[in-house]
Amino acid sequence: MAAEDTFNSYREGLSTPLENAFDVTPNDGTDIAFVTRALHIGVGGDIRVTFMGMADGDSVLLKNIAGGAQKAWRVKRVWAADLTADSIVGQY
Question: How do the domains of the chain map onto residue ranges?
Answer without folding.
Answer: 21-91
